[in-house]
Amino acid sequence: MRPDEPHAVMNYADRHPEGKALLVLGGPSAKNWEAVRDEIGADVIIGANGVNNKIKDLDFWICAENMTYPNQKALEGEQRYIDIMKMFQRTGPKVRLVSWKTYDLLNDKNHAIKMKRQGYNYDMLGDFTFREYGDGLMNGAMLDLPETGVPLRVGTVALQMMHFAGILGVSEIHTIGYDLCLKKDHHWYKYPKYEKTRFYSEGMFIKYKGFKTLWLWVKTLDYLHELTHVFKRDEITWKDHSDGLLQKEKGLFDD
Fold first, then answer.
1. Side-chain-side CA neighbours of residue 140 (13 Å)
2. pTM metric for this prediction
């Protein structure tokens, strides 16, 4: 039996046919989310991770990460992880999609769905569609980058949000806070900063096109290019309203 709940995810299929979805991520540019919402006339708002601290009544909220390690460190009293687990436990969004690996950690499971991430390598994208949940929400390709010290998947939670927006049936996806770079304030909400950890080694932090960023985020750009034909095939347009690395990639999905 599958550990996630594919039927529960697909219960929301085509809830917003031909609609407009605003995906709000954690970058500082997300402070302008309300202006973008009003400008585009968003039909549905999807947020991830600590965005639930700023937008209390999100339509959908996604936390795809395995929270087992943060939970253990929080129990040991580390403030960084106590803050992360407070984020994980917030209620407010109408529907929450959380990793099946940590669903049982939720204090309140009302309107929560167990989901999982599915990695798609470059040569697997021919079978992928944003319109179906399939084996899980999009999670990018696995890369073994010597600079990072560990194998990691490209793509941020934005890919899972885009995938779910496609399931909702929208024809337009708009993103904000998808900065893909490290600014003075890494997030627009109180949240632990990116720092060197077992996941982010010394070689992960680089300069690219004038930005302080992560190797993982630069490789994400390559993967987004690979997804261009999938957006077109599924008849979805994507426009980014952020202020960061993606702005150097103008024209990525403009047509």
1. 25
2. 0.93
